[in-house]
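Q: For a teaching handout, I want to show students what a protein-ligand complex looks like in token form. Below are the inputs, and the small molecule is calcium ion. Please produce the holo structure.
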Amino acid sequence: MFKEAVSHRADRVDAYALNEKELHIRLKTKKQDVQGVDLLIGDPYDWSEGSWNFTSISMTKSGSDQLFDYWTANVEPEYKRLRYGFSLYNKKESVFYGEKGFHHSPPEDIGEYFCFPYINKADIFRAPEWVKNTVWYQIFPERFANGDQSLDPKGTKPWGSEDPKVDSFFGGDLQGVLDHLDYLQDLGISGIYFTPIFKASSNHKYDTIDYFEIDEQFGDKKKLKELIGECQKRGIRVMLDAVFNHSGYYFPPFQDVLEKGEASRYKDWFHLWDFPVQISPDPNYDTFGFTHTMPKFNTENPEVKNYLLETGRYWAREFNIDGWRLDVANEVDQAFWREFRSEVKSINPDLYILGEIWHDSIPWLKGDQFDAVMNYPLSNNIHRLFARRDLTVKEFVENMTRVQHMYPENINQVTFNLIGSHDTPRILTECQEDPVRLKQIFSILLTFYGTPCIYYGDEIGLTGDQDPGCRKCMEWDETKQDRMLRDHVQRLIQLRKNEPLLANEGNLIFLPSDLSEQSIGYTRSDDNNTILVLLNVSDKKDHVKLPINYKQQDAIDLLSGNTIDWKHGKFTLQPMETKIIKLHHQ
Ligand code: CA
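A: Here is the structure, written as tokens, with calcium ion included.
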């Protein structure tokens, strides 16, 4: 056995409480090195006649990546405490692995075992329950719909009359969203994520001037209240977007600093290096990237902290928003986020806090800062498989399995899954405008764990390159919409609602990546049912032999409603075909 590769740490990823009763324990071993793992478990205070009482349960192989196999077990300790170790075996040997290393057999000394001291309620990672069952729709307000021409900024172009430029205005506003709530409800979405709506000078509004005002191009506070009220009536949640890392260039305190320098009462609001403050040739203050128009906030300054925390509180308290999406979240200090969480959750414990982080995000996901981050690893792997096509099916499965095991399951359930946004080229454009590929991407997005988000217009086939190209006006002329694609998305959203296994009730396990070179398969299952998702991502027929044995009469194709002709677990997938199959356990 390759002991160097055996790895477990009693931290928040390998050993964590899923809720007040259940613990998840995970172990990593070298790929295809270990045949099975038993988890030895007992209460640390349960002894009889001088020996510790423990039992054994077998762990499930929950996936494999390029190098490792992952093993998972679900334990419900009677007294909320657990002492545990691993018994690993293959054809050649059997070993015990505990906190202090390896033994030939389970040691008598309980000190050799790993320890989960107690499931304390306060330490359990808890995201709002509703997020698990939400399907989001991202709206870039300037480009969704123009509902009030009286608010249009100077130089506004007729809707969709040309491709957007960096500084174009087309007059989109909150009334436009209100006017199209029927469309969104019909599509089936249950959450709207708005990119920033606060006062700012650009069309994207990430350059905030006033965190307490709605940009007048979009409407006013009364209109926002009306919009949120209408959304609530239709069961649609509302998430706003804020930039707390840096202000806009025209943010009055920064302008004051530029004007008065050292004499400005706001000089400690930013990270100024020296005086006078200069913006060129290079800024002498901390910025986002090297952009002089984005001065970084000093979030350790009590006044700045108060200003930004009050922003968080104000929109939660006065407008009853359901979520905050936080821009450039990992460059802001974590002490600030801890306070932010405690402040906004004290107003609304059910408010979803979503950080924009592109990398491994565990430091922010320990339950004291964010509920979730944007799942860029998912989008990246989907892009590589379907758009760039530089990833094999096997690599896709391995990469996704690795990401899945980087986070606890209760974090995965609320991870924000996106396949495109205002910051990326349109997914259809990336797929060489092949709607069949996009249909498959939506099939994955809407049958995967996490909380999926559709970028406005992707569902009707909008195209466009990197921004500003990906920020075209929404197409409202139905004859110019891809209705087949839209119907497919609508059907999948409905399916996700009808079959909770497809949302977050079922465990996701990829079928072994050597199943086929052309097809991806994964199951979503609980004790009673399994839903199998199969996608042939190639232009050739594929004959898949499934490793699971279910009886033919119980397989139903959820997309068509037909019974599946299923012989001996063999299955033929047409080129680029997707099947979502429900199986009843015998
Ligand atoms: Ca308008």
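A: Two things your students might notice: The mean pLDDT is 95. The pocket of calcium ion is lined by residues 146, 148-149, 151-152, 171, 173 (CB under 6 Å).
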